Structure formats: C-alpha cells, structure tokens
Amino acid sequence: MDRQSSQTSDRENRNDEEGEAEAVIIGGMVLDIQATPSIPPNPRTTAPGKVQYAAGGVARNIAECVSKLGTKPYMISALGLDMPGNLLLEYWRSAGLPLNGIRMGHDIETPVVCIVFDTEGEPAAGVASVESLERFLTPEWIVQFKHNIATAPIVMVDANLSPPALKTSCQLAAEVGTPMWFEPVSVAKSKRIASVAKYVTFTSPNEDELISMANALSYKQKFTPIKKNSSTTISSLFLQLKPAIWVLLESGIKVIILTLGSNGVLLCSKGRFDLQRIGPTRNSSHDIGKKLRKTISQLCPSDRFFRTSGHEERSSTSPCVIHLPAVQCASVVRLTGAGDCLVGGAVASICAGLDVMQSVAVGIAAAKGAVEVETNVPNDYTLDQIAADARSVYLSAKAIIDPGKQIHGRLLRTKIQTNVNIVSSLIDMYSKCGNIAYARRIFKRLEVKDSVIYNVMSGFAHHDYEEQAFDLFDEMVKEGTQALLDLAKSISSL
Predict the structure, then answer these.
(1) Looking at residue 206, what DSSP letter applies?
(2) CB 363 within 8 A of CB 341
(3) Residues 6+ apart with CB under 8 A from 405
(4) What is the CB neighbour count within 10 angstroms for residue 202?
(5) Which terminus has fewer CB within 10 Å in the chain: N or C?
C-alpha cells in the first residue's frame, strides 16, 4: 500500500471510530460595516444611504454557507471579547456550531472591515483592521487541533493567516493526506501561496489573484493583468490565462477553480482524474447533506465528462479545462459574498460525497443565492432551488479545447510532423505557453536538430528552468551546433 492509500485508510478508520468528521475552516471572522449610498457619493461630504452591520470574513462566510448546506464546520479563528466579537458569535451559538477552535480574549481586537459600496452594489472603497488575526491565530493555536484536521474530509484556509500559521495548517493536513483548499482572499495576500503550493489540493482565485499567484510562484513579475472587452470569448480568455494556470498546476496544486464573475468558472487540472471524487467515500450523517448528495447525484450524472475507465495519467502537457457558466440571477443586490458562498457550496458538497465537478456546480448555485441578498450569506437555502440551479450549470458545462493541441493532434496523424519548420513552431508554441515538458518531448523525438531548433528550445531560460537551459547549451556544444545570438542572450540572462 502506498503512503497516500495508507493515509486515507487511517483517516477512514478514525472516522469510523469517532463518528463523522467535519470540514475544518481556518481563517478570519470579521465584522463588516457596510455603507450603501442611495445616490452617487461626492468626495469630502456625506451622502444619504444605509449603513448596517454584517457578519463577514472569508473563512467565516464559507463556514456559515457550509453549515446551511448540511455540513457542520469546525472553525479555527480568533475573536475579541468585545461588541463585534459578540455579534459574530451570535450565529455560531444559535446554530449549535463548535466554539472550541475559536480563540477568544479581552486582549484580542475583533477584526473589523468598513466597506463603502457604489449604487450598483459593487465595493467602491474600504478600510480593513484585521491585524489581530495574524497576531493571535498562531501556529501554536492551530496545532492544538491537529486531530480535527486529521479526521476532516477537507480543510479550507484563507490567506488572512500569517505565513507561519498558513504553512503549519497546510503541513498538518499534508501529513495525514487531508485535501487542502486555499482561498486567496485578495491580490496582495494571494502571494502567500508561494510557500505552501505543494500542499494545496484546491484553490479558488479570480483572474487578478491568479496572475499574482503565478508571479509569486515564478519569482519574477512576468505575468501581467489580461486585457479583455465585451467581445472576449471564454476560449480566448483561457488562452491568455493558460500560462499562469500552468504555473500553478506545475507547482503541485491539483485543481484550480478560477472564478470569472458573471462568466462563471474555469475548472482546471492536469487530468480528469483530479476532477472526480476525492478522499474516502462516506455518507453524510446530516439530513440536508444526505438529500444534497442523493439529489445532485441523480440530476448531475458523474460520468458526463468521465466516461473513460481504468488508469489515466495526469497530463504533463496541457491542462484539462471545463467551463461552468454562472446562473442568471433574478436581481443583483450585492456581490461581496458570492465568491465565499461558491467555495462554501463546493466544500459542503465534497463533504457530502459528491465529485469535484458536481461540487463546483453546487457552489455556483450557492453563489447565485448570495448575489440576491444584502447579507454575505443567505439566511437559508432551499434544496430544490440549489439542485435546479446546479443541474442547469452542470448540464451547460463544456470542455475547453486548446486549439494548439487540436492542431498538433492533427499533425500527429500525418507525416508533416517531421518537417523542421512545423516542429519549430510546435516547440515555440508550447514554450510560450509554459509547457516546457512537452516542448522538450517534441524536441527529443526529432532526429536531426539544427541551430534554429536549439534556439527555439531556449524557452527553458524564459520559464525559470535554469539547469535545463545550461544542459541544453552543453548538448548543443557537444553536437557541434553553433549557438545563435538569441540562445546566448537567454543563457546570459540567467
């Protein structure tokens, strides 16, 4: 039995002995002060409108959504014994959720965020006072709950954690094979992925956070925000984001749930196997969870995209990408909780035993509910509505086919693939997309290599493969091929 199988078996045994494990959610519980003007505000003066308190914080919102979809979350966080803290604990107590993981104290200042919305419900400005999270949600506090992490079906961490606390959380999960979900929170904090990517199973960035994470993992600011307009298609958007997506997958992250706002989600992995069920299969002990699994399994057949049987190798060439559209909303009231509810819906569904695609479809349905209310999380969800929306999303999902791969596939069925010019173009295409492994595979299959081919393979140098770049240069010298200027420049830039 391999290490991963052993870890899964141990976790199943512990779960059988001690009852159903719960999703562990680690991160911020924040009081949101939300100000919505009734007219467009002007600088240096007040505007009439509505100001209200709302329970917030990425991790807290996700945990609340999880609880309303049939899974009892185990929250690990830090709160002050003050007015904001008491307001945040009110729901936890009324819902009967465990408080043991929440660190409380008079010396802790409960995190507070003040958000000013525009008249369309979009955040226009805000101020966050969340320093106490990094100060009090420490590795020492988190490690006390390693048993909960070990027996959980999944652990979700938000990037509000300090880097040491984030790393401790991820390592504790990795030691026992518990799947880890990293929620980036913001562009600035998403960079914290750099030290923990190898432990992460899922991550849910938006486009800007994806670019930021790819830059952090590349250790160079080589990715820039994408340019799009009303005519940008999902396929063209994917092609622009593909190099950044590949950096995350190459770093060890198994599944990227790339959120595109009103355009839905791009579900990305190295292979279809990663989009199927994760962890041990078990039935939820909660009535809502049982009904969710039964209903979604019937409405969203798991073999729609996974009809092949047997072992499937994870791709070393190009990501497997599926687009799941958003659900049309009756009205858009506020957008702040949508992303958190998407993650919450997916986490609850994974805990119920659904596969990844089914779970993300439920997440998109849960996000729709958040957009239609003023609070970050709806007061309740109805199973019939969630199921209907998830079915609509799931049956509308489409695989995104890389046009470059399509062309290469056609070439493989012809003899034209031996043409040096064609091969040079293929290598250049894969190098520019960051798929260095496949560019190298095509390169090695070519019997006759000239200086142009070697020059094209200088893509190694542009994608932080310094050792391979030098090996390529040595190979070129041994074969007596004269180095061209571009390759020399690439090597000298390392």
Answers:
(1) B
(2) yes
(3) 317, 318
(4) 26
(5) N
Integer CA distances (angstroms), 43 to 40, 46, 47, 120, 121, in order: 10, 8, 9, 18, 18
In terms of DSSP bridges, do strands 49-56 and 112-117 run parallel, antiparallel, or are they unpaired? unpaired
Q: Note the pTM of the prediction, 2 decimals.
A: 0.78
- Tell me the C-alpha to C-alpha distance, in Å, between residue 64 and each of 8, 31, 56, 87, 362: 27, 14, 10, 14, 15
pLDDT value at residue 288: 74
Q: How far apart are CA 336 and CA 57, in angstroms?
A: 10
DSSP-assigned letter for residue 489: H
State the Cα–Cα distance between residues 358 and 277, nearest whole angstrom: 9
DSSP state of 315: P
Q: Which of 400, 376, 375, 372 is nearest to 386 (CA)?
A: 372
Asked whether the beta carbons of 336 and 375 are under 8 A apart, the reply is no
User: Terminal CA-to-CA distance of the chain, rounded, Å?
Assistant: 42
Residue-wise pLDDT for 434-474, tens only, equals 555 666 666 666 655 555 555 555 555 555 555 665 666 66
d(C-alpha 445, C-alpha 459), whole Å: 17
Question: Any idea which residue has 């604990």 for tokens?
Answer: 89
Q: In what order do the strands lie in the sheet with 123-129?
A: 49-56, 30-37, 112-117, 123-129
Q: Which two tokens stand for residue 23?
A: 């999703």
Where is 112: in which H helix or E strand?
strand 112-117
> Residue 445 CB: number of other CB atoms within 10 A?
10
Distance CA 351, CA 361 (A): 14
Distance of alpha carbon 112 from alpha carbon 131, whole angstroms: 10
Residue 88 near residue 60, CB atoms below 8 Å = yes
CA dist., res. 360 & res. 4, Å (int): 24
Q: How far apart are CA 57 and CA 38, in angstroms?
A: 25
The pair of three-digit structure tokens given for residue 274, joined into one six-digit string: 């990663």
- Quick check: 101 and 60 in contact, CB under 8 A? no
How many angstroms separate the CA atoms of 169 and 149, rounded? 8
Q: Which residues are within 8 A (CB) of 109 and not within 5 positions of it... i.e. 6 or more apart?
A: 80, 82, 129, 131, 132
Q: Give the Cα separation of 24 and 155 in Å (integer).
A: 5
Q: How far is CA 275 from CA 80, 305, 344, 373, in A?
A: 39, 9, 17, 31
Give start and end residues of each alpha helix (H) in 201-337.
207-218, 234-250, 287-299
Rounded to whole angstroms, the Cα distance separating 254 from 197 reads 10
Rounded to whole angstroms, what are the CA distances from 78 to 89, 160, 199, 202? Answer: 11, 12, 24, 24
Token pair for residue 282?
């078990």
Helix, strand or coil, per DSSP, at residue 49: strand
Query: Residues 405, 333: contact at Cβ < 8 Å?
Result: no
List CB contacts of 462: < 8 A, sequence separation 6 or more: 431, 490
